[in-house]
């Protein structure tokens, strides 16, 4: 049987159900290619009480863990909630087609935690991802999604590619916004949400560029039309504390 287990947002975010599932497993894997973890692998091992093997994207996508799950209990540990990434849906579909039993153990994710900004979750539009640009390749389709969301006055959550430094992400945002003729005001930057160090700031890009202490993982929100209560709560995060 294959268990896809959400770890939540901190090293203590895994549920009791998740810990019970791990106890049943002979093989335990961790995928670490979708996010910059806010804690170490050692801290996670101490929390779950077992050793695990780290898998990269290619190792997860080759679906070999499904073959193992045909003969024994296997756990795949995933930051946040298990089904946020397309790869994990593919794993479930392969299990169904192969007749392999599976169980999804859910936990908190960034999609829950961004509500701490005061922005109402039902007012978010499509979620986009910002990749790290290369010298010869600067994909900006994430800004096209922002443009679509703004056209219906919806908020935009931009997930940041693993390893992309904060200042580079902000510069990419500025360039992409200019190309798509979007006038950006203040943005919300959410850092290490769900952990004891979590921080939210609400500033212009120029103000945010002066900030050097960003905590990973982080994401960026482009607000759409704000309800007065949303605006009041967001403005509370604009006070400089760094």
What can you see in these coordinates?
- This protein has 242 residues and is an alpha/beta fold.
- The protein has ten helices and ten strands.
- The strands form two sheets. Strands 3-2-4-1-5 form a five-stranded parallel sheet, with helices on both faces. It has a five-stranded mixed sheet with strand order 6-7-10-8-9.
- The radius of gyration is 19 Å and the shape is globular.
- 33% of the residues are buried.
User: Which runs of at least 5 residues are low in confidence (pLDDT < 50)?
Assistant: none
Mean pLDDT metric: 94
Largest sheet: 5 strands, parallel
**SSE string, helix = H, strand = E?**
EHEHEHHEHEHEHEHEEHEH
Structural class: alpha/beta
| Beta-strand percent range | 15-25%
Spatially, the strands of the biggest sheet line up as 3-2-4-1-5
Defining traits:
Cobalt-precorrin-4 Transmethylase, domain 1; alpha/beta; five-stranded mixed sheet; about 240 residues; 2 domains; Methyltransferase, Cobalt-precorrin-4 Transmethylase, Domain 2
């Amino acid at each position: 049987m294959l268990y896809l287990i959400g770890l939540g947002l901190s090293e203590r975010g895994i549920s009791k159900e998740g810990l019970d599932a791990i106890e049943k497993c002979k093989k335990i894997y961790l995928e670490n290619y979708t996010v910059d973890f806010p804690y170490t692998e050692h801290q996670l091992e101490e929390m779950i009480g077992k050793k695990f093997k780290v898998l990269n994207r290619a190792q997860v996508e080759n679906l070999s863990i499904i073959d193992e799950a045909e003969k024994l209990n296997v756990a795949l540990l995933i930051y946040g909630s298990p089904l946020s990434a397309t790869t994990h849906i593919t794993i479930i579909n392969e299990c169904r087609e192969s007749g392999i039993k599976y169980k999804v153990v859910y936990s908190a994710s960034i999609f829950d935690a961004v509500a701490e900004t005061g922005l109402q979750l039902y007012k978010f539009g499509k979620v986009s991802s910002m990749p790290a640009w290369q010298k010869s390749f600067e994909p900006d389709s994430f800004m096209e999604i922002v443009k679509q969301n703004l056209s219906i006055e919806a908020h935009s959550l931009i997930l940041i590619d693993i390893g992309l430094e904060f200042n580079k992400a902000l510069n990419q945002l500025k360039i992409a916004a200019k190309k798509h003729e979007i006038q950006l005001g203040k943005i919300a930057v959410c850092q290490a949400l769900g952990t004891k160090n979590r921080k939210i700031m609400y500033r212009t890009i120029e103000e945010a560029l002066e900030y050097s202490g960003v905590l990973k993982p982080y994401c960026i929100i482009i607000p759409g039309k704000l309800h007065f209560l949303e605006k009041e709560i967001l403005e509370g995060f604009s006070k400089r504390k760094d």
